[in-house]
Amino acid sequence: MSVEQTLSIIKPDGIQKNLIGEIYNRFEKAGLEIVASKMLHLSKDQAEGFYSVHSERPFYSDLVNYMMSGPVMVQVLQGESAIDANRKIMGATNPSEAAAGSIRADFADSIEENIVHGSDGPETAIHEINFFFDDSEICQRTRT
Ligand code: IDP
Ligand code: MG
Asked: Whose CA is nearest to atom 1 of ligand 1?
């Protein structure tokens, strides 16, 4: 066990459903700290770049259009085993397979429109955090 950072996104369907507070509450209740956060509306270059690992998948162009369809919230979560903890809070990619009580089970409409993104490993997390945030935008807690 160690303290990790992970990149989380509330996707356009999550923003449309007005779930920012609900989702942040789930992170905080699980002991994860939000150490960076911003809202932005992804450009095509940003959406394609962020999901470039999936560029050969049949759903890639739909995925890019979905991610550009409205604003998103991007945040860095920090805590013990934050990468796995966030994936557990999110639930499986396909909401029909997501564990009861997870974000995707509770709110997602489809395997594509599944409300949230979370990094899937330590190297991905570093790459994805750097994709959206400068080091100076990550704010460690200074009150103990
Ligand atoms: P993850 O978000 O659970 O890590 P990935 O396999 O990395 O899932 O896929 C990235 C995103 O691509 C998913 O969250 C979802 O929005 C979309 N996606 C994944 N598989 C499919 C599919 O089979 N059809 C349509 N969209 C998909
Ligand atoms: Mg993934």
From this structure: 93
